[in-house]
Amino acid sequence: MALSLYSFTLLCFFFLFHFFTINAYPVHHNYPFHRHHHPHFASHNYRDALTKSILFFEGQRSGSLPSNQRITWRRNSGLSDGAAMHVDLVGGYYDAGDNVKFGFPMAFTTTMLSWSVIEFGGLMKSELPNAKEAIRWATDYLLKATAHPDTIYVQVGDANKDHACWERPEDMDTPRSVFKVDKNSPGSDVAAETAAALASASLVFRRSDPTYSNLLVTRAIRVFEFADKYRAPYSNGLRKVVCPFYCSFSGYQDELLWGAAWLHKATRNPAFLNYIQVNGELLGAADFDNFFGWDNKHVGARILLSKAFLVQNVQSLHDYKGHADNFICSLIPGAPFSSTKYTPGGLLFKMGDSNMQYVTSTSFLLLAYAKYLTTAHKFVDCGGITVTPNRLRALAKRQVDYLLGDNPLKMSYMVGYGPRYPQRIHHRGASLPSVASHPAKIQCSPGFSFMKSQSPNPNVLVGAVVGGPDQNDRFPDQRPDYEQSEPATYINAPLVGSLAYLAHSFGQL
Q1: Average pLDDT rounded to a whole number, residues 268-272
Q2: pLDDT tens figures, 44-67
Q3: How many CB atoms lie within 10 A of CB 360?
Q4: The pLDDT of residue 40
Q5: Distances in Å between the alpha carbon of 149 and those of 140, 162, 191?
Q6: pLDDT of residue 31
Q7: In CATH, what class is 42-414+490-505?
Q8: Which candidate, 419, 444, 431, places its Cα nearest to that of 480?
Q9: Helices 210-229 & 128-145, crossing angle to 10 degrees?
Q10: Active-site annotation, residues
Q11: Is the model's pLDDT at 30 over the cut of 50?
Q12: DSSP 3-state assignment of 216?
């Protein structure tokens, strides 16, 4: 049958469209990528998820709650924190489902919330003030914790005694012991991460509150100098206190590089660029280490420094694009250097305990790096396979979609999002009756009857993202199972940026 010129042109158009679509989003047998995951189709209400991911932080607040507190089943707590050492350490966040304030993951949470706003805050619209409020709740506390030179208060609460009780934060009567690092017992990791948090947050507030921004960056410089001058991991001096909870397993070199990278970005002072150039390799810049989280910052530092090369054209940081590319290639299924495991349902899987923190942090890095590559008109070469920025976005979207419910269990791993989500999260405040419904104190041991109960939590911690399913996509939704059922601030923090990007890209913001 002869084709008219019009029909032939139409046929060519469809062929080319199909060809380029397939090549833009290659499909691999071990990377499920069904029609409803197509990057041009929004399978979720990312705006709703964004709102909830930020709201979660209000449920984690310690201290005196403001009049506009939206998670209303929470009340004031920890109002005498710091009194044991005659310092004011009221405020900040509980890291997860317990009532301890751990400075190391709190600082990382702050850095990732700030990075989320730095990259994607312009897309957040009405949620931007809420995101900035979440950052400020942390930085106000970190300023208190670093008020004395060469000293950082890094923990409030005795974790072992806290974990021996199941109490609401409003009731807690376990010791609010205060622990610090200083010249005699240094902690370069926690100090440099705190410097990164303060420096990154200074960029968030640079236009809206320049005085506060200046205070943050000035403090960040002082804290980083302390981290660099007195070098040791904080778990050396505080082993009995911080281990096994937030032990520093990866050493402190990654935090020094990460802290310097953020200070370079915040100050544009050549001294920090020089520091990175002189110390980068010594601090493990090229280590083939592809995990990014509260303990290990190597990959994050590589991606951040590659931005300076790709976007600001800082030629001396050229090598960091290669380091960042190595990380990307490790994630791409079917690529020659791929080393990443996925569950049968398509979720990145690295760890049995709180794997979702790895998923959210990696997804954020994929979207941030895609943004930098697009600006610079670059791509990633994985052993002859060209990986485009769109490919990175598609992989990140797939991870976020899985988290929000596109998975074998059809379960959203964000509390309060979607029709089906975890009902028995490992979280003291959420699992015990609120002060409003049960004004009488609930003692340490009796609280465990609530922890062991099969009943759903009486309080919904909206926006909390739990540790997530196992390597076979299974999730029992049991409260004692903290590995899978506990939420944490550092799971949510990078997700905020990813959700802002996705909500914007699908016209939801």
Answers
A1: 96
A2: 999 999 999 999 999 999 999 999
A3: 29
A4: 58
A5: 17, 29, 12
A6: 34
A7: mainly alpha
A8: 431
A9: 50
A10: 426, 477, 486
A11: no
A12: helix
Q: DSSP letters of 170-192?
A: TT--S---EEEEESSS--HHHHH
* Each residue's pLDDT tens digit, 441-463: 999 999 999 999 999 999 999 99
Rounded distance between C-alpha atoms, residue 167 and residue 432, angstroms: 8
Mean pLDDT of the chain: 92
Q: Give which of 466, 426, 467 is closest to 450, Cα–Cα.
A: 426
* Cβ 399 vs Cβ 365: under 8 Å: no
**Is 258:212 a contact under the CB 8 Å cutoff?**
no
The residue ranges of every structural domain in the chain are 42-414+490-505
CA–CA separation, 235 vs 286, rounded Å?
A: 24
Decide: helix, strand or coil at residue 246. Answer: coil
- Are 382 and 340 in contact by the 8 Å Cβ rule? The answer is no
Whether the CB-CB separation of 234 and 149 falls below 8 Å is answered with no
CA distance 273 to 364: 24
pTM > 0.90: yes or no: yes
pLDDT-based confidence at 43, cuts 50/70/90? confident
Computed from CA positions of residues 221, 224, 230, 235, in that sequence, does the dihedral angle turn out positive or negative? Answer: positive
DSSP assignment, residue 407? S
The answer to whether 343 and 472 are in contact (CB under 8 A) is yes
CB atoms within 10 A of CB 297: 30
Please answer whether residues 463 and 414 qualify as being in contact, where contact means their C-beta atoms are separated by less than 8 angstroms. yes
- CA–CA gap between residue 264 and residue 352 (Å, rounded): 35
The answer to whether the CB of 216 falls within 8 A of the CB of 202 is yes
Alpha helices in 121-154 (DSSP H): 128-145
Q: Look at residue 379 and tell me whether its pLDDT is greater than 70.
A: yes
* Sole residue written with tokens 């910052």: 297
Token code pair at residue 42: 């929004």
Q: How confident is the model at residue 370 (pLDDT cuts 50, 70, 90)?
A: very high
* CA neighbor of 116 nearest in space, from 300, 306, 248, 298: 300
Separation of alpha carbons 122 and 435, rounded Å: 38
CB 186 within 8 A of CB 234: yes
Q: How far apart are CA 503 and CA 509, in angstroms?
A: 6
CA 423 – CA 448 distance, rounded (Å): 17
Tell me the mean pLDDT in the region 431-439: 97
- Between CA 263 and CA 196 the distance in angstroms is 7
Cross-strand partners of 179: 155
User: 243 pLDDT exceeds 50?
Assistant: yes
